[in-house]
Amino acid sequence: MAKLWAGRTDGNTDKAADEFNSSIGIDGRMFRQDIKGSIAHAAMLGRTGIIAPDETDRIIDGLAGILDDLESGVLTIDPAAEDIHMFVEQVLTERLGELGKKLHTARSRNDQVALDTRLYLRDIAAQLMQKLTSLISALCDRAEEYKNTIMPGYTHLQRAQPVTFGHHLMAYAMMFLRDVGRIGDAKTRMNVSPIGSCALAGTTYSTDRRFEARSLGFDGICLNSIDGVSDRDFCLELASALAITMMHLSRLSEELVLWSSWEFGFVSLSDAYTTGSSIMPQKKNPDMAELVRGKTGRVYGDLMALLTMLKGLPLAYNKDMQEDKELIFDACDTALSCLGITEGMIRTMSARPERMRAAAGEGFINATDLADYLVGKGLPFRSAYKISGGIVAYCIKNGKTLETLSLDEYKGFSDLFDSGVFAAIDMEACVNRRTSEGGTSVASVEAQIAAVRESINESELTT
Questions:
Q1: What is the pLDDT of residue 122?
Q2: Distance (Å, rounded) from C-alpha 161 to C-alpha 431?
């Protein structure tokens, strides 16, 4: 394919250099955004009188035809093309002749690629937000189902206090809800149009950048043409938000791996999201959860590569920036697939409440409630804490639990104990007394579910 930029040079680059320079294999996916942007640009050129109205109509019709042919498969993207922008312009020129060459008036590939990337990532950001809200909805559904299921809550991976499985799942719903907000913020900041910045200095043509921006659904324009072509903050911000999202997915995946192990046995993952062993017939491996956990590092790498690629670049555009798309596209693709897989695992897993309840009965996770019981009798908390700790040590030494101690044994530690102590340390009571906002009581979990569902309904309206 002839080089549209040939002129200052003869365009006869080495074949290896052509392949090295080509980005069509990466940016070809932006063909819809490229054609959409070109249609808006042609409309602006006609509106401002830079080209004749009939020429505008013919160019727009030609571009629409190329889009139809690409989507139907009649036309395929030429892998020999340097990039998607050159390919579309070349095909347009082949179909319209000299008229096709007028499309690139008052723009450069520098602002064109910045435009296409913003348009594409804006669409992907909306998809990511939808995937997140779907996962959050799944977590809310399962939290509703297990709002009464008692399990041990952990700190330092040691049994700490009783919580409900629904409460635990809602912690992840809160994380992913913040991710929706972060991606939405990134989407808002990327929604300004760079087109009309041209190579870096603007143009001598009397263009209407704001008309072009409005027609493409942008909230405004980049106010500095140098920044318009050299800014990739929107890629970094989205990649950063996705790195945090992946971290949350990885933490959830780690717990699914732990919970589905024989040692925990809290959940059983669906066969649809597990694999077997080639040699050990008893194995049911949580491979999908492990892969989500592993792919987190990949998205971290995409972010770090973007940051490193940009950190030493002088203004304005440099060819290094061609690397941005492969990295941010990979981060988006990876996050989208991991979100879908995780939702599937959550919706299809089977919880084992009896195992959770049995684990909650061990480890003295109601010891804080024992101390609170003594505080209710007028004892300072630190004194109550010391007595409760002594009782736990006594139980460990004698192979007992707080529930199996006799009242006389309790009174051996303090005369403040009476028969009410057994109701105070009852596991269900321990959970449902925690009625503070955000706590683990059933009423509190129900309030959390309602609040999160309201938030995701609102976010769906904005995507």
A1: 98
A2: 9
Name the nearest CA neighbour of 342 among 241, 260, 250, 240: 250
Summarised one tens digit per residue, pLDDT across range 31-76 is 999 999 999 999 999 999 999 999 999 999 999 999 999 999 999 9
Question: What is the residue extent of each domain of the chain?
Answer: 15-105, 110-355, 360-462
Residues 218 and 190: their CA atoms lie apart, in Å, by: 9
Whether CATH 1.20.200.10 fits 110-355: yes
The residue written with tokens 């050299």 in the block is 230
Backbone angles phi, psi at 153, to 5 degrees: -85, 150
Catalytic member of 261, 270, 277, 383: 277
Class (C level, CATH) for 15-105 = mainly alpha
pLDDT of residue 283: 81
Tell me the C-alpha distance between 279 and 258, whole Å. Answer: 22
Residues ≥6 apart with Cβ < 8 Å to 402: 364, 366, 367, 370, 391, 392, 395, 425
Which of 156, 206, 406, 419 is labelled catalytic? 156
Q: Tell whether omega for the bond before 316 is within 30 degrees of 0, i.e. cis.
A: yes
167 annotated active-site = no
User: pTM above 0.90?
Assistant: yes
360-462 CATH fold: Ribonucleotide Reductase Protein R1; domain 1 (1.10.40)
pLDDT at 372: 94
The reply to whether 156 belongs to the active site is yes
